Amino acid sequence: MDYVVRGIAGQGSVRAFAATTSNLVSEAARLHNTYPVATAALGRVLTAAGLMAADMKNSNDVLSIIVKGDGPLGNIVSVAKADGTMKGYVDQPKVDLPLNEVGKLDVGKAVGIFDGKITVVKDLGLKEPYVGQTELVSGEIGDDIANYFWVSEQQASVVALGVLVNPDLSVKAAGGYIIQPLPGADESIISSIEKKINSLPSVTTMLDQGNSPEEILNILLGDFDLKIWEPTPLHFQCDCNRERLESVVLSLGREELTDIIQTDGQAELTCHYCNTEYQFNKDELTALLEQA
Description:
By secondary structure, the chain is of the alpha+beta class. The protein has ten helices and 14 strands. β6 (117-123) and β7 form a beta hairpin. α1 packs across α2 and α9 runs antiparallel to α10.
């Protein structure tokens, strides 16, 4: 089961989040038929959204991450609710690149950082959502999320995100963690955490070795009176439906809708997030035209 946990340590001076996301990343890869580097990039953005959404208070709160670089993947989008439901997509799922110089999937090159941006939108049920945007610094997603926290929210953060892809393109392990020292945190605690992080293998290696999110947080923060809250299950679930797609058709306007009826006599719309296809025949389009 995929889930995220929240923890606090150092007498409330350090907060932390950790998640395992192998199943939901596998589902996203299946729905979008992604190649390995696209699986890794989309999986990291999904994981980041799941970790960050765990900090929201109300179950209907929604957090979105949009990563847009100049690389061949195009836009990468993830949407997560505080209740653990998630969805996401990558514009170009069939990108295939050589491994980077250290033999890893070259997510940074696939994303591309030239004039790249990462945008975080938090819809907390207020009149206007909170929108923060920062430049991409590496395209590897973890570094970019950490930079977002520092620039946009003035919050120092360690962000580790990873997706391990098998030779058969299936997802072997996926997950991540975020560690954030709060104002007033003891420098000795921060230094100890930094040394611990630098001595550890990657987060996907730890997950593949059988470590749970709770165990990963305990490895990192167990020496500092760590307290962990109950986990929140995470799962990929698109909320598209026919009624919502009808609204998209209506948004085309009377002129374009009339042209579709006269020219094609039908329309097919595909949901970006789950690739579900919705067919509208001539009678259905005519009925919608009468509503327009």
